[in-house]
Amino acid sequence: MSIRRVTALLMTLALAAGWWGTSALGAEEAQETQEAPEAAAPQAAPEAQAPEVMVVLRDFQVVLPKGTVGQRLVLPVGTTVRFVNEGPSYHNVRQSRPEEAYGGHYLFQSPDLAPGESWRYTFDQPGTYPILCDFGAHYLLGMTAEIEVTP
Ligand SMILES: [Cu+2]
How far is the CA of 137 from the centre of ligand 1 (A)? Predict the structure, then answer.
């Protein structure tokens, strides 16, 4: 290998190293500028959101918020309900009547929720929504409720 070729090779390597150095630095800077708005967004979001009501799933009942009469929760349209599994076993939320559980008509169904997990649904249409937990047929043990959404 001639000296010229070695010099050319070294220059190429130096240029490549320089390019890598700059691009790595550039990537770090880009990450920093991206992180700032992302970190700020979740703090601002909850204030702008529609009202949220928490409904607890516990073995083996649907626990509605304090002040609710019977198993019937009345909410204004647009309310988001956060269903939280606070029991030690799996539960889910299926919008159907007990006689239509497993295969009948339903508007929504949550995934099966492990202990501690939660799932949200926004009621954007007025109406009467019977709900139940069909995981292990828990509705037969009383895991049912009715959500009335007013205009
Ligand atoms: Cu259940």
Answer: 7
Answer yes or no: do 62 and 109 share one domain. Answer: yes
Distance 46 CA to ligand 1 centre (A): 29
CA 121 to ligand 1 center in whole angstroms:
17
DSSP states along 94-108: B-S-GGGTTTS--S-
* Number of domains observed in the structure of the chain: 2
pLDDT tens string 20-49? 444 444 444 444 444 444 444 444 444 556
Could you tell me the distance, in angstroms and rounded to a whole number, from the CA of residue 56 to the centre of ligand 1?
Answer: 11
